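Reposting from the mailing list since nobody answered there.

I have sequence plus structure tokens for a pair of proteins and want to know whether others read the tokens the same way I do. The first protein:
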Amino acid sequence: MLHRPIIIRPKNVAGGCLAGGSYTEVPRHVTLPYDEAQLKGMFKRFDANGDGRLSKEELRDAFKSLGSRAPGFRAFMALFRADRNRDGQINDDEFDILVKYASKIGYSIK
């Protein structure tokens, strides 16, 4: 969906445009990148079974909610990068690595 910017036209006291005035565009839709604390909270919410670890399926669901176009691939890459003990899950010790990986991808709040 495309959003049109809001155009603000400066006015003088008589109600007309200022001579030689410029127009300012203010975007209607602003995107802000997630910070690491927000990403960490988001990933923790996807621990469906409450065991304190994220499985590949839980990671896939988390990346899907972040708006990833390929959540299965992102889950695979997250496990490849962050799963240091190679048990197929992200535990508390590996969580910071996962968050840094997701932060580098550049997901944003829309």
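The second protein, same order (residues first, tokens after):
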Amino acid sequence: MAKVEDLSNSHLMHRSLREEPDVVNNAKGSYIFLQNGQKVFDGCGGAAVIAVGHGNSEVIEAVSKQLSVVSYVHTFEYTTPVAEELANILLKNYSGKIAKVYFVNSGSEANEAAVKVAVQYFYEQGKTSKTQFISRKQSYHGNCLAGMSLSGHVLRRKPFENLVSDKFHKVSEANEYRWKKNDETTGEYVERLANELEAKILEVGPDNIAGFFAETIVGATTGCLTAPKGYFKAIQKICEKYDVLLITDEIMCGSGRTGTFFAWEQEDFVPDITTSGKALGGGYSPLSAVFMNQKVVDVLSNGSASFNNGHTFQCYPLSCAAGIAVQKIIQRDNLLQNVKVMGEYLGQALVKELKDIKIVGNIRGRGLFWGVEFVKDKSTKEAIDPRIRIGQKIQHNALVNGLAIYPGFGTIDGLSGDHILIAPSYDITQDQVNVMVQQVAASIIEMEQKYAT
């Protein structure tokens, strides 16, 4: 492998044009080995992508074997055994809840497809005015134009505001830590949010709204923010009242990340459409999916009998082979149970080690999907000056300490607030959790003296 000596004159467009990324020499298990000789524990799976570790020989063999069988066919004319097998594996336990799955590459593609299938669902019924959507202010649904229009992520949207559609509307996010009033119960807060959604539907017109989009557990925008108890049940009731599809974005929080394949399984509802990605392919090949219930599939089947949305690399055989291998390892090694057990342990360990740190405001999450929000003052929940980028500074400290975590900013309103996200591989051990939490705590404490009141 050629050594990269200098990135200052690189022709590759990196995420930043000011800072050079670290060069990864190789990765194995839960560790990333940098070209500078540093060994880093991958505590975030990149962006919550890694599920069965890096460099898993079984997955590599499965993809390699698929290469020698068939690497590509066009889905207009053909299907492949691996695509059919992956669909059957994923839907095996969801009879009566999910009817079909549609495979694409990125999460952005999956959410674009979810928008299209929702519009086509109503189009096939002659309800051609139902082309608009409602999502939440603090949210992220992808880099393509429909996904960006759905997203409430202020800084990611800002350069493209003149491109995003005005057919996408926003209601408040479900953030009990920040926005539940002191004299308000959780139930009353949920009712207020449901009433807000109903008011928005009535404002735009029920005949115009096709779907309501929400991340079951919000990912990078707010840092593993879970919904208040009863929230999705109340939201679903409003959606059903006005013939609006409920669409859950589980690109980041799904595919087993919270201990069940779908995060919504731990809530009291079943959505009409769900998107999944990231950990679905475990990082071995781009793979995302759109899951549709029987109601949606029946309307398409009884109408045009097709989904008017195709991709060149739809149901890509190499990605499907990777997805099958990842799912087989998860099932064989009972890794979803490990996600539950180690996730609960991780949450308890984070609370124990971080609760007394002055700049730690809130610790939240589920399974192996946890976030820590930082504040200047615990009692007022005042944010640290956003110009400091405290989350990124803590990420830097963590890297120096041998740990990779995922930073975020704009946590509160898109402009202020900072957090970090922790999302390790599903096969993490208790000893690794202990070391990881100690590294997180040390990295935050280094910042506490400088930025706490």
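Reply #1 (J.P.):
I read it the same way you do. The CA atoms of residues 301 and 307 lie 9 Å apart.
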